[in-house]
Amino acid sequence: MPVYLVTRLRLDAALYQPAPPRQFKQMGRPRKVGKRLATLKTLLGDATTVWQQVTMKRWYGGHDYSVEITSQTAVWYHTGLSPVPIRWVLVKDPQGKFEPQAFLCTDLDATPEQILRWFRQRWPLEVTFEEVRAHLGMETQRQWSDLAILRTTPALMGLFSLVTLIAHHLQPDLLVHQTAWHVKVLPTFSDALALVRRSLWHYRLFQTSTCASEMVKVPKTVLACWSDLLCYAA
User: Fold this and answer.
1) What tens digit of pLDDT does each residue of 18-55 get?
2) 90: closest CA among 40, 45, 140, 132?
3) What is the DSSP string of 148-186?
4) Angle, to 10 degrees, between the axis of helix 146-169 and the axis of helix 122-136?
5) CB-count exposure of residue 49 (10 Å: 0-12, 13-18, 19+)
């Protein structure tokens, strides 16, 4: 199965036409690229550039958004590197909410809309990585071995996903834990983690206890207080 690359492209990137066919008995080294094309930055200010207005479904923020695009195929080349045939897409915002941007795709048959949709799909991944860095400390692994770090990161992300799914299932019992130094309105991941711990401990330790009894070694109110303290301790 072929693998294609979709990424941003500099507006001043060096783009060329494909190398012309080599003539019979032509002397010299084969050319890598053909004539150099105008930069994308130049096309932005060119009055003859043809723009197409398209509406991108579920754009950033989850709303439909109209943008203007133009696209062509070219060869990207940098000295010392192999030439790469690409399809570039130049995007500008009629409303002026973001600066003109360019993207490239190594699949020459892909449509400009498909390339933008592919690039849009990276956003949930970036949000996920930012969240796990902020809440799970993925950049602070203390292992010395590279293999241990490679095991820890997927384990943390898997644990984060499991806790989130279980907490969503137990959502009616989710409480917002307040402290004297921090007041919050919505539950955080620590509340979700405490809820999952409480549920698992109750199932494992007290599944055979009777529900009618008011006393389980200690009064239920004291046991609940201890349980909450332990859930938020780690």
Assistant:
1) 988 888 877 877 888 889 999 999 999 899 999 999 99
2) 40
3) HHHHHHHHHHHHHHHHHHHHHHTGGG-----BTTB--SS
4) 100
5) middle
